Amino acid sequence: MPPGQVGVSNVQRQWALLSLNQDVNVAVYDPFSDMNCYLSKVDLQISYIRKGVASEETFDGEDMSKTLLQSFNGLMLTVGQKIIFDYHGFNFQGAVMSVDTVDFKTMQAGQAASCSPRPTWPRFRGILMNETQINLSKSPDSSIKLKGGSKSHTNVLIQPNFKFEDMGIGGLDKEFSHIFRRAFASRIFPPHIVEKLGIQHVKGMILYGPPGTGKTLIARQIGKMLNAKEPKIVNGPEILNKYKLFADAEAEYKARGEESSLHIIIFDELDAICKQRGSKNDGTGVGDSVVNQLLSKMDGVDPLNNILVIGMTNRLDMIDEALLRPGRLEIKMEISLPDEAGRIQILNVHTAKMRKNNLLENDVDVKEIASLTKNFSGAEIAGLVKAATSWSFNRHVKVGSVAGVSDDVEKLKVGREDFLGALEEVRPSFGVAEAELQRCVTNGVIKFGDHIERILSDGQLFIDQVRNSERTPLVSVLLHGPSGSGKTALAATIATASDFPFIKLISPETMVGFSENAKMATIAKVFEDAYKSPLSVIVVDCIERLLDWVPIGPRFSNAVLQTLLVLLKKPPPKGNRLLIIGTTTHRDVLQQMDLSEAFNADMYIPSIQNLKAIETVVSGINLFSDTERFSAMTYLNDAWKDQQPSIGVKKLLMIAEMARQDLDKVDKFVATLLDEGSIPTRK
């Protein structure tokens, strides 16, 4: 090159936008005029010079950075500049994406490590030196395979200042912390750190739990939480219409490798499409092929490392086991019913706008409402707030109209009484079966003998034992006695008196026409639901009827029997407590089946066996006046003399109510009672 001329290569012409024979004015530049002239960091984007070149070799980014420092030490670099270099026999091109500089005076003082980088801007430049940190990344359109080349700052995967509560989710702080640690923590670190650890990112998680607890809501908001690709949300049955779910992730992973963005795929109602393979007899095998595709993409021969699959289901037991092992949907997170602190958060979320706009009365105590909403799911709490506002709306409907609004509508506010009214309407699905229990105690409990008081007292002791004892989280009691002696009513009364948040009744009345499998599933579901509550009571009524037992044969359902035997002895999860109250008329039959031994205790419920008890019952229901009652008791005493009656309280109440309809109540009551086969005949 003749003196006074500058040679410019094709790459430099393209970067500087210079054409052939163009006159260019060149001036001497003194880099030391700017005291920040040495580079502390350079970000280079690497690609092959020739397009179409491909190699199966994976290049070590750290070694490539050392080669670049040796080759270009002392060279001035600026943003946008391109450099050409050879590495392992391949010609590469590096584009300067950004630079940071170190203060010259600081370098002279030997304190380069403590300097602060200057902000980058398009015309900024600096001199490469041995201490410069070079961060390599592959060009998006290049097929180069690069590892360990990036020592950049932490990837901003999670948006700063993100809170689930701000997204309309409350009471799930613990669950989200676990999800973040397991699924996202490894992804915010530089790839070379993860590579040195020799681990793979978590590629899948499954959220399971009762309906309405926030599973779908969590998944829906994860996209807003992450600086990643927009999540693909697929409801279970839609999978066949979106079979190319992994196409975008696969294409980007081939192009960019570990530098590719995170692709999130969300499956709602996963149990609809990922049942155990071979469990369906439709002959098509469509469901099996969906499971196979998920398995191959997540952890197959050529897996993708830039995906996160989130599945949601209410039935974890139905999901194919191969999907749940590590490497696939390995994080199994139960989204359970919120505790009191969680319910306070959820109530604050749903009343935030009311409070902000001064539409919430001062007498509304969120802590009080949270204490009254035991076993409410997040969705049910949201429904409670809506129901409370409906009471407030109703106060401002114009009198005599269902469509007009009163003039004082601007004074609308939601108060404590509105929430208490809503609590009467909105009942938790994992709560108390109030209507069923009330039907069992239509006539109340009449304490016609000391044994009734004793049974209720012992029942309260069992309740206290379950609530307070650390040694017996599971207590089961069998109430047995003659038909109509009041076993079901006493069991329901004891259960209701517990004031536990979860009380359910298992009764043969609700299973008429059920197959064995349906009965087993229904019984098992009640127990599974009970395990989700900290304190639960299950009343198993008329056990011999549940077992389809009949004396002719005899016949009974062994499958249902085995289900009960297992569940009666199965302890609840740690921290939860369960009281089981069973009733039967045929304890001897349960003894032959070894079922009575599954109960921790039993209490005998006798029938009415003296005249004083009969008098107490008829007095309790106000059947007679004092004169009529004395006359009836005198007739019965004369008729029975020294013999003892034996009649169930249920039958006695039926006779009493029938006699109430007759003109001569006393005569009808006495005659009907003496006509019973177990009672001596009237003289």
TrEMBL record:
One of its GO terms (biological process) is Golgi to plasma membrane protein transport. It is found in: Cytoplasm. GO terms for molecular function: ATP binding; ATP hydrolysis activity. Pfam families: AAA, AAA_lid_3, CDC48_2. Residues 201-339, 473-609 form the AAA+ ATPase domain. Coiled coil: none annotated. Belongs to the AAA ATPase family. Required for vesicle-mediated transport. Catalyzes the fusion of transport vesicles within the Golgi cisternae. Is also required for transport from the endoplasmic reticulum to the Golgi stack. Seems to function as a fusion protein required for the delivery of cargo proteins to all compartments of the Golgi stack independent of vesicle origin. This is Vesicular-fusion protein SEC18.
